[in-house]
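Honest question from a wet-lab person: if I give you the sequences of every part of a complex, can you actually get the arrangement of the whole thing, not just the pieces? Trying it with mine:
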Amino acid sequence: MPSYNTSEFRKGIKVQIDGEPYLMQHVEFVKPGKGNALYKCKLRNLIKNTILDRTYRGGDSLEAADVTEIQAQYLYRQGDSFVFMDNATYEQYELSKDTVDEAWKWLKEGMICSMTLYNNRPISMTPPAHVVLRVEFCEPAVRGNTATNVTKPVKLETGAEIQCPAFVEMGDLIKVDTRTEEYLERVKE
Amino acid sequence: MQTAKCKMQSVAPTDFRPAATWSILRRRAELLRELREFFDRRGFLEVETPILSADIVVDRHLDPLSAILPDDPRRPDIGRRLWLHTSPEFAMKRLLAAASEPGAATAIYQVAHVFRAGERGRLHNPEFTMVEWYRVGDDMAAGMSLLSDLCESLLKTGPAERISYRDAFLRWVGIDPLTADGPALAAVAAGRDLAIPDGLLLDDRDAWLELLFVELVQPNLGQVPNMPSEIGRIDNPSYRAAIVYDYPASQAALARTRPCMSHDAVHDPPAREPPLVAERFELFVRGVELANGYHELLDATELRCRFAAANAQRAAGGKPRLPEESRLLAALEHGLPPCSGTALGFDRLVMLAVGAQSIDEVIAFPIERA
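Yes, you can. This is the full assembly:
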């Protein structure tokens, strides 16, 4: 892989430190009038999602990391693995439960998600911001507004459970914000 | 016969607009006027010296740009290499070497564009505006006073607090920068949990001093202090500017040096030679390095030595060597009258005056859209 010289450091570059991929989030160039240049960097570990503070001297370099973003379609779940396919290359990727984390709640067969690959290995996956899912089970809607009946728990086809307005019925299609895990609206067929 | 069709599609860059607002450009012009008034009132002559020169300062950390002056316009890559100045210092000192001629000016100033490679950031643009001034007969104290007056006049700070490099370190780092060795400085940096660059050699004293200064000392300079002093002096809350003076001799650049007697030397005479300090001073306002001044070195032999040492450091760091001979050295050999000179980053001064967060806000066209 090519490397970045300190003069090429800027937000957004992807580099390799101790074998792990990092995204450069912030570079502060510091140079006293008669001193050496210092590059104070904040880097985000793309696997662990932790922040690293590192200072580099003018002339240092960092190895570029082979990090790419792809669009991948969710195929199915197999035990603790979630299988995705890159629609452009038909290559299949297996993601562990840890990598998928909370996103399992929104995964429906055929859903297109964005995936980050490091050295061609998937390290993270993000579902679309909004998804439409069917309500699999909930208590029937009660007529009339009452103070104690504004929202109710609802189980979606993926197995996830969220709070919805009381008027939602079993079999409804609802739109959910995957980032806030909140009900947005009911959707017509 | 086919005629060529002009391309209708535009391929010109879209960032043709200035980065600075008109309001700031107007304020900048005002400040420039005020600055000229400040110097004109004090009997300084405004001078202009070339940006291009056969000579260039040899410094470990300053990387100049150069241009080819072609002999034949059809071969633009072949010709004499000329350097774009990193400061008008050499030319202004050559003017002072003629200060004894009839009608000569003994106090001069210049507003010049200067160029430095590898410098881009919130406070840096590779091309920036330097205000530089020299006055024959000024020593370091006089140079500092003049700088403080300018700062008061343009930025409305109180008079600058004076603090020696050594006292600043004792106060905020807790170690004597003039006598501590590399490993001791490294230990302090580690103890204060600083992010230490890889490859910083233990015995590179200056690199450790720079790191400690930038991280631990500089953020406190020219700020309204909110912590009591650790060496018993009373903090004056009206200070907003600070001038650090008496730098370690290794950071002298073109300043003269002298042995530094510590405060306690009278009661507790040192067992060995007092360390050398450089008669160099810097102005800081709100933690921003604004100006750098010297009680100027007059000795050509000493300066030649420093340039040679700087070139060795450049080569060791993989940087190209720069020419060590210059007309400045010839001027020093002829004789430069004792003087003090200072260089100030005008863009940063404007930043402080208008409260800008980035130098881009005060420059019409920063390098990316120049």
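Two things worth pointing out. The two ends of chain B are 40 Å apart (CA to CA). Chain B has nine helices and twelve strands.
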